[in-house]
Every structure is written in structure tokens, then in C-alpha cells.
Amino acid sequence: MRDHPAERPRYFDLLELAETSSDVLAFWLTGSRGKGRETQDSDFDCVLVVEDEVFEDWCARHAGRERGRTDCSVMTLEGLRAHAAWGGPDTWDRYSYAHIRVLADRTDGLCQRLIDEKARVPASEVAGFIDRSLDHYLNQTYRALKCLRDGLPMAARLEAVDGITPLMDAIFALNGGRLRPFYKYLDWEMASHPLAAGQDLAVRTLTLLDPDAEALRSLLRDAEPLFRAAGHGAVFEGWGGDLAWMRG
């Protein structure tokens, strides 16, 4: 049940606190509101970064979901550095930092820089990440085509659908290490922040939701030159003679 619409969301109190308290290092909105994609049903998801010595006290007083549809996370600067670290258990949450702007900052821009870094694949990891994602996609295409060959259309569909995420990962990362958006934001992301390379291919990836053999092969044939031109040809070569069969 939603709070009474006349109630002032606690977010505004937290923003005022962030702007006036020396304990607060930074404050921002995350979620849909942080990206400017809010609806009338959107909560106010926000983050307070505070000094180490007051962390426990601020957690006790301000963390969690309270009145006015506000959910506040409290962390230290080191906690921010550690959250969604590449290769960690919450790497999946890095897209939460995309298109986020700090609203109050006493770190001389450090928090904004950390946010911007988290919103991309680390530069040193991009090539390997694309290779692994691309190989995963090729594996799912191979498995889906075998299922179709064997008269198993439902199994083929499930295998093909599992190829959507790695192919999207590879396409977005090809564009300066960008992260595949949460699917809630996919249409908005591609409309508002178009991909310089592979935009049409990303749209066509959705044909894997209900593929036939030609759709699978056509997508592969169009993906291959894009990734080869970017230096990822070895992934395709690794499939040996199976690649020609997959191409059709």
C-alpha cells in the first residue's frame, strides 16, 4: 500500500540534511528517479555517504525504508569504492550507477568519479569481457541450432533466449565499455544514448526471443564482421568447422 500522496517524502529531509551536515560526504538519488525515468509510482531510492566515525549512528537513524516512499542506503567512502567492484558478487549492480549525478558533494568530485567508473566495464577488462560474452552467445546459438535440427523447438527457444544477455553485453561493451542496461531501461537507453557501433544489431538481438534457424544464422552472420573488425576474430576461429555450419 502506498503512503498518502499528501505526505512529504523523507527524501527531501535527507537532501536538506546532506546539504547542511558536515558528517555527509555525498548524497544522490539512484533507481528510476536518479536516471530521470520516474513515474508516479517510483520510490525515492537514495544514498548517503558519511564519515567513517558516524557510519553506525547514521545507519541506525536513516537507513532503510520509511515514510514517503523513501529508501535510503548509508555507506562510507570505502564502502562506495567496494560496492559493485568488478568481478565481485554485486558486479551485476554496476548499471545502477549509469547516468547518476551527485546532488550534494564534499569530496571535490571524487564520488562522482567513482560513480562514473562503476557505470562502465573497467578499461583493462573490456577486451576479455567481450571475448567471453561473445563465446557464450556463440555457444547458445550452436545449441539452439542443434535443437532445431533435432526437432526440439521449445528447447531451441530456451537456448536462444539465453544468448540474448551475453550478446547484449558484448555489443554494449564494444562501445567504450558501456554496460548492458537493466532491461527496464533498454528502450530508453538506446533511444537517448544510441550506440555508435551495433545499434541495429542490438535491436535485432530480440529476435532470439522466438527464433527460427534463419533468424539465428542471420544474426550471427551480421554480428561476426562487427566483432572481427574490433579485434575479436579469434573467438570465431575458436569454433573451427562448427562456425561454417552455424552460419548456414
Pick out its properties:
248 residues; Beta Polymerase, domain 2; five-stranded mixed sheet
Explain this structure to me?
The protein is of the alpha+beta class and 248 residues long. The chain folds into 2 domains: 109 residues, Beta Polymerase, domain 2 (2-Layer Sandwich); 125 residues. 49% of the residues lie in helices and 10% in strands. It has 13 helices and 5 strands. Strands 3-4-2-1-5 form a 5-stranded mixed beta sheet. A hairpin with a 3-residue loop joins strand 3 and strand 4. The protein is elongated and about 65 Å long. The N and C termini lie far apart (54 Å).
Q: What's a concise summary of this model?
A:
It is built from 13 helices and five strands. The protein has helices spanning 10-20, 31-34, 55-62, 77-82, 110-118, 126-149, 153-161, 164-173, 186-192, 199-204, 213-229, 233-237, 242-247; strands at residues 24-29, 44-50, 64-66, 70-75, 104-105.
Question: What is the strand and helix layout of this fold?
Answer:
Layout: H1 10-20, E1 24-29, H2 31-34, E2 44-50, H3 55-62, E3 64-66, E4 70-75, H4 77-82, E5 104-105, H5 110-118, H6 126-149, H7 153-161, H8 164-173, H9 186-192, H10 199-204, H11 213-229, H12 233-237, H13 242-247
Parallel strand pairs: 2-4
Antiparallel strand pairs: 1-2, 1-5, 3-4
Helix pairs in contact: 6-7, 6-8, 6-11
